[in-house]
UniProtKB/TrEMBL annotation:
InterPro entries documented for this protein: LRR_dom_sf (IPR032675), LRR_R13L4/SHOC2-like (IPR055414)
Protein name (database record): Disease resistance R13L4/SHOC-2-like LRR domain-containing protein
Disease resistance R13L4/SHOC-2-like LRR domain: residues covered: 78-217
Species name: Nymphaea colorata
Record keywords: Repeat
Entry-linked PANTHER family: LEUCINE-RICH REPEAT-CONTAINING PROTEIN 57 (PTHR47186), OS09G0267800 PROTEIN (PTHR47186:SF3)
Presence of the UniProt keyword Cell inner membrane in the record: no
Top-level taxon: Eukaryota
Keyword Transmembrane: no
Amino acid sequence: KTKHKDLKLHDIFHDLALYIGGKEYGHASATEHTCHLSLLGIDDAEHKYNASGTANKVRTLLCDPDSDSKSDLHSVYIAHLTNFKWSRVLSLRGYRMYELPKSIEDLSLLKYLHLSYSNVKRLPSSIGKLCNLQILDLSVSKIEELPKEIGELSNLRYLGLKDIEELKFITEGLGKLTNLRILYRFIVSDGKENTRGCNIRELKDLNKLKGELLIECLGGGRVKVIDAKNAQLKEKHELIGVKFYFEEQEDDRVGNASEERSLLEALEPPYGIERLGIYSYKGDRDGIWIPIMGRCRHYSCSVAHCWQQ
């Protein structure tokens, strides 16, 4: 019989990663050979400063926040951001920064930018220079609006906008992201005060969308029926769930039942949809629920806060 010793599984994976990565992997320290640098769990801002200054060939940089966020932010992500021009992956998850520097454009090879749970409120217009970016995760951040330059990210596949309470406005241009697979949230603009936000027809060419899609601010006369038809939701065959929110904003006019019924008919979901939600809807249900629910493959529709006028 042999004696068995307890061994944590993550230690095995850690040692395996070190063995495979060799000189290309670094944790808290970097050399001229380092391609993948992790600063996770490192609380010393000066240590991060030295590591980031050395690693000018880094392809992957993983970071997390610490208690001294101000000094860490300036030393690593502003003073040394241009050092990471070879980076493909940059994770700033949870950082307490309020905006990204314009120099983010120097990371032209970047494919993955992770800003979820951060305090970022706005993105610089230079974000549009990241022509190779495929994943931009802003979930659970403090982002307030998306700049029109987002539309220049022609290779973007994933735009994480889940659970962002502060996000109220998306500028026009989203319709140019024809490679987009995951969007999750689309906010219709009212077009007031010289703002050029997203018209619902910008969904027309986004036929690669997958998963679930929430369409907000449909009430208050914001959306024309012809624009809703041009969105061609029924052509998004890889969507498995759609939610329509007809809530009205403070400055919107009061919508009427006839308008909202016509609008809902125009927003015909794709065949085989599995989940359907319709909220704050004022139109009548006669003759419209059967064909829509008939397209729910498992009839797992969720209808809440709907009423018949």
